[in-house]
Design a protein that fits this description.
The chain is α/β, with parallel strands linked by helices and about 300 residues long. It is built from nine helices and 14 strands. The protein folds into two domains: about 170 residues, Quinone Oxidoreductase, Chain A, domain 1 (Alpha-Beta Complex), CATH 3.90.180; about 110 residues, NAD(P)-binding Rossmann-like Domain (Rossmann fold, 3-Layer(aba) Sandwich), CATH 3.40.50.720. Helix 4 crosses helix 5.
């Protein structure tokens, strides 16, 4: 049986993505096959597709991912779906169980099916979420949890989140609020109301005000957009830190992502402590347009892709 999948034919602009039919994967030892119902287009997907990196990082990426095109041609790192089959010795999930998850190494979610390790970053999908909502949780949520932990955020502290309206930023605002911090978000004019609705007590519009010129001081400054976009602001962030305060960026090393954090995100979503932020939802057939939109760099939260039935 064949399935629909979006194949990255080479590195380049969104038009290198092609909808094709490929063989349905068969789960191997300790794997589950998942019928994907929703995925998301993340900034990481776009970096892999376009290889829009510095020359040194581009060389390393080609060696790691494939020289002229990704060795794993079906991109996509997040999913929400249903377990369709289990491989030998796989006991973590049952056929028919709803799951959501993230895999930054295996990719493969721009398709109707994928096989992933059963003991990886997979967890039961929150029953109160749609598949589109569940697919909007893992990427930003897991990265935000890692970097908030890296910054040693604690209850009662003051945190400033630069880029508070993106996938990582919207998750960081909600999680920092949940952990009892006082949250200041930095975003553009169009996103001020959104960031405030997520729990930021103060929102700074970077188009009209530089946060480093304000009198407030923070225990943690978290750059949620990456140093290529926030270099100028981050160079000055030390002036707004409290004694012993820290500044961390999503570009600071490879994050350690944990299954227990995915389970935690599911529990928080079930309780309504965090919510999915979805900017737009595209059909799998419109993946090129979805990548164009994410490439523009102005998405609010997440761009989700609905995967059609077989």
């Amino acid at each position: 049986m064949e399935l629909k999948a979006v194949v990255c034919t080479r590195y380049g602009p969104p038009e290198v993505l092609r909808l094709q039919e490929v063989a349905t994967p068969v789960p191997r030892k300790n794997e589950v096959r998942i019928r994907i119902l929703a995925t998301a287009v993340t900034s990481s997907d776009c970096y892999v597709r376009g290889l829009n990196l510095s020359p040194a990082y581009r060389l390393m990426a080609r060696l790691a991912l494939g020289w002229s095109a990704p060795r794993q041609p079906v991109l996509g790192m997040v999913l929400s779906g249903k377990v369709d089959a289990v491989g030998p010795d796989s006991t973590s999930f049952d056929v028919g169980e709803r799951v959501f998850g993230f895999n930054r190494h295996r990719f493969g979610t721009y398709a109707q099916y994928v096989c992933w390790p059963a003991d990886g970053l997979l967890a039961p999908r929150p029953a109160n979420l749609t598949d589109e909502e569940a697919a909007a949780i893992p990427y930003g949520g897991l990265l935000a949890l890692h970097f908030l932990r890296k910054g040693d955020l604690r209850a009662g502290q003051r945190i400033l989140i630069y880029g508070a309206s993106g996938a990582v930023g919207t998750s960081a605002v909600q999680l920092a609020r949940h952990f009892g911090a006082h949250v200041t978000g930095v975003c553009s004019t169009a996103n001020v109301d959104l960031v405030a609705s997520l729990g930021a007590t103060t929102v700074i519009d970077y188009t009209s005000q530089d946060f480093t010129d304000r009198p407030e001081r923070y225990d943690l400054v978290f750059d949620a957009v990456g140093k290529r976009k926030s270099t100028a602001a981050l160079r000055r962030c030390r002036r707004v830190l409290t004694p012993g305060g820290a500044c961390v960026s999503v570009d600071d090393g490879a994050p350690k992502l944990r299954r227990e954090d995915l389970v935690l995100l599911g529990e928080l979503a079930t309780k309504g402590a965090i919510r999915a932020v979805i900017d737009r939802t595209y059909a799998l057939d419109d993946i090129v347009e979805a990548h164009r939109y994410v490439d523009n760099g102005h998405k609010r939260g997440n761009v989700v892709v609905a995967v059609p039935p077989v």
